[in-house]
Amino acid sequence: MIHARGLVQTFHTGRGKQKTEVRAVDGVDLDVEEGEVVAFLGPNGAGKTTTLRMLVTLLKPTAGTATVAGYDVVKESAQVRRSIGYVSQTGGAFSGAFAGDEVVDHGMLYGMSRADAVRRGQQLFDELQLEGLWRRMCKNMSGGQKRRLDIVMGLIHDPTLVFLDEPTTGLDPQARANLWGHIADLRRERGATVFLTTHYLDEADALADRIVIIDRGRIVASDTADNLKTQVNGDLVDLEVAPGQVSTAADKLRAIAEHVEVAGSHVSGRVRRAGRAVPALLRDLDAAGVTLESVEVHRPTLDDVFLTLTGRSLRDAEAGTGKPEDDEATAAERDDSLEGAAR
Ligand SMILES: Nc1ncnc2c1ncn2[C@@H]1O[C@H](COP(=O)(O)OP(=O)(O)OP(=O)(O)O)[C@@H](O)[C@H]1O
């Protein structure tokens, strides 16, 4: 359904001596098969949106090739556009028009009859909890309602290949869960292929058959969430101990763990197969007279995967709320703060 080879996108910013080249996407290969739900995960500024915009024909690749639904994104862009649904990060419908009219116009752009567009649009309004808002002006809708309206517009013509750019950013937890259900239905009921970008690790984990991780314009991993997690070196064991016993506990943990760290009264480290190692550790600590306040064992998360692969944390990026398209300064600043925080 989606096949990309060596996709590159460079942007030029600044003037004169300040002129710099940003290699936003730096040789991306991608294969998404029919019926797959693939999450494209990465921190702010990693190149997710730029890759997506090349695939949906809004941006011509600087180098490389891609076919989407069997059509070349450069030579057959009209056919690509007809074959897909696309929900951009910023959305489109913010006008003084009625929400329902925007949706119907959008459906008719794709060749639907007015009656079909009204019927399908009203059905999607119900499914995405926009009941009663058909005759509300778009500009008077809340942020979450606008986001759901964007999604109605992306799905109005029943595409079997859907690109969603951070679909749940700005939605409250209930609306997010509802949209997850809807995305799962798209595949289950209609066999749709879904390619979505996200900062949310739990979203990628819950929804996707496969997770593709991008960092600094390059793909650093592509696998199921489970397989990715097995790449991380063991489970995290976190001990909380009584004051004055931190260094003894750290010594004991070091005997079986890697990357042992101390923070306040907590001592943590990575242990292979913690379920087997922890009972002996507890006996050891007891024998050394260490009083334990608590013990926690955490299975690896996708954040750990990202950290293992890149040496940096994804967690800061999770708090991101998206950025306006073409806002280079914002993305560049976020890049800096992400790296700063991870150091
Ligand atoms: N129009 C543009 N002009 C200049 N630089 C750009 C432009 N669009 C994106 N960039 C830069 O390209 C890099 C990748 O941006 P992109 O928006 O693809 O990242 P992203 O992974 O989607 O990030 P986010 O999660 O914040 O949306 C960033 O460094 C960004 O500043």
From TrEMBL:
Family annotation (PROSITE patterns): ABC_TRANSPORTER_1, ABC_TRANSPORTER_2
Domain ABC transporter as annotated: residue spans: 2-241
Pfam families found in the cross-reference section: ABC_tran, DrrA1-3_C
Cellular component aspect of the GO annotation: plasma membrane
A single MF term (Gene Ontology): ATP hydrolysis activity
Region of interest: Disordered: 314-343
Biological-process GO terms, alphabetical: daunorubicin transport; doxorubicin transport; response to antibiotic
Compositional bias per record (Basic and acidic residues), positions renumbered to this chain: 331-343
InterPro entries (UniProt xref): AAA+_ATPase, ABC_transporter-like_ATP-bd, ABC_transporter-like_CS, ABC_transporter_ATP-binding, DrrA, DrrA1/2-like_C, P-loop_NTPase
Cellular localisation: Cell membrane
Keyword annotations: Antibiotic resistance, ATP-binding, Nucleotide-binding, Transport
Membrane topology term: Peripheral membrane protein
PANTHER family the UniProt entry points to: ABC TRANSPORTER ATP-BINDING PROTEIN (PTHR42711), ABC TRANSPORTER ATP-BINDING PROTEIN NATA (PTHR42711:SF5)
NCBIfam families in alphabetical order: drrA
Similarity comment: family membership: Belongs to the ABC transporter superfamily. Drug exporter-1 (DrugE1) (TC 3.A.1.105) family.
Protein name, entry field: ATP-binding cassette domain-containing protein
Organism of origin: Nocardioides islandensis
